[in-house]
């Protein structure tokens, strides 16, 4: 998924005819994630508010004085893992202050996910976004 933008994902998504194909696409995105280290499946990395098991490990690098925020994640649910992949494209590798101030829900609205995810999955997605933004805000300069 390196080099992909959220616009690329939306374009691919819109090309698909029905939601069964779109769910398959989300699952495939999740399968493209790098393996999540077993040692990082800790309570500290676990996202609260998700019905599925979800772990997110963040990292901050300094580049010319800017805090570049990135993360990796994993879930035991295939759809959720795909949602993590979408969030990775949207929010990882960006300046921490940009991630902290991002309206991720507005970007994700382009996928029409809220209309097609269960309320539990939507709540879990919101929990992941909240966690990512909070950690980005904590390191933003």
Provide tags for this entry.
single chain, 141 residues, alpha+beta, Sufe protein. Chain: A, three-stranded antiparallel beta sheet, 6 helices, 16% strand, globular
Characterise this structure.
With 141 residues, this protein is of the alpha+beta class. It has a single domain, classed as Sufe protein. Chain: A. Helix content is 50%, strand content 16%. It is built from 6 helices and 3 strands. It has helices at residues 6-15, 19-31, 78-91, 96-101, 104-109, 119-139; strands at 54-63, 66-75, 94-95. A hairpin with a 2-residue loop joins strand 1 (54-63) and strand 2 (66-75). The radius of gyration is 14 Å and the shape is globular.
Task: Write a brief caption for the model.
It contains 6 helices and 3 strands. By secondary structure, the chain is an alpha+beta fold. The chain has a single domain (6-139), classed as Alpha-Beta Complex (Sufe protein. Chain: A).
């Amino acid at each position: 998924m390196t080099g992909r933008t959220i616009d690329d994902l939306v374009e691919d998504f819109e090309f698909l005819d029905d939601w069964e194909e779109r769910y398959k696409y989300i699952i495939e995105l999740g399968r493209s994630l790098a393996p999540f280290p077993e040692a990082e499946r800790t309570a500290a990395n676990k996202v609260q508010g998700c019905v599925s098991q979800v772990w997110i490990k963040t990292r901050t690098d300094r580049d010319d004085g800017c805090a570049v925020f990135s993360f990796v994640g994993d879930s035991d649910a295939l759809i959720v893992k795909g949602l993590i992949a979408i969030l990775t494209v949207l929010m990882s590798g960006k300046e921490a202050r940009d991630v902290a101030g991002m309206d991720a829900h507005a970007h994700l609205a382009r996928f029409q996910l809220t209309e097609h995810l269960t309320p539990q999955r939507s709540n879990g997605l919101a929990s992941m976004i909240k966690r990512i933004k909070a950690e980005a805000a904590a390191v933003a300069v």
